[in-house]
Amino acid sequence: MEVLPAHKSIWLFCKKHYIMQAIAVTWRKLSTNARSASSITNLKKIGRTAFSNKYLLYTNVTISVSLSAVGDLLEQTYELYTKDMEKYDFKRTMHMGFSGVAVGVLCHHWYKVLDRFIIGKTTDMVIKKLLLDQLIFSPIMIVTFFGSLALLEDDPMDNFKEEVRQKFVTLYKAEWMVWPPAQIINFYFLPTRFRVLYDNTISLGYDVYTSQVKHNKNNLRNADRISV
């Protein structure tokens, strides 16, 4: 197995450490705010703080990381049931959670940009947002997903190219089946600050599928060897 260069390993460690530290600081502040009030007031205070402009980015990243990891654990549970795995691979789950960092950051800024330049909730505005989301942002998200995971693997560039070549179309077709109806609700009814939360809630089932597609690599390689 090829070992990542020392400078690259240090960079990845520092990046993950900084992100996790920022998230930890955010949630420590949330828990501090919650200690001095009743349960209902706690929830309201936590909600207001978490979805405020100051902390919204960290909240969105936390949601994306958590649900990406949960989606992978659900997929691994299924693979254990079908005997495709012998035990849980928690390193794989951590990698899938790490991919949620990029997803959370991009979604956070994308929805802000959409709502800034396409104002209103008329049918025309919703359709414009939906088309831009599917035609522009969806391909970017798929490429980012494979790219963020490739950073943690051997031969990142070769791995990235192979994954995109073999699996991009599969995921993009699935995006068109899942997201248009879900995003109509998102764009028509929800304010900007709740879009990523809704997005990730709907995405939990989809994250199970992306984990399956991503980690089907060995089967694809075996098929290539057999065909040769």
From TrEMBL:
Recorded topology in the membrane: Multi-pass membrane protein
GO biological process: mitochondrial ribosome assembly
Keywords assigned by UniProt, alphabetized: Membrane, Transmembrane, Transmembrane helix
A cellular-component GO term for this protein: mitochondrion
Membrane-spanning ranges: 55-74, 94-111, 131-152
Signal sequence, renumbered to the chain: none
Protein name, as recorded: Mpv17-like protein 2
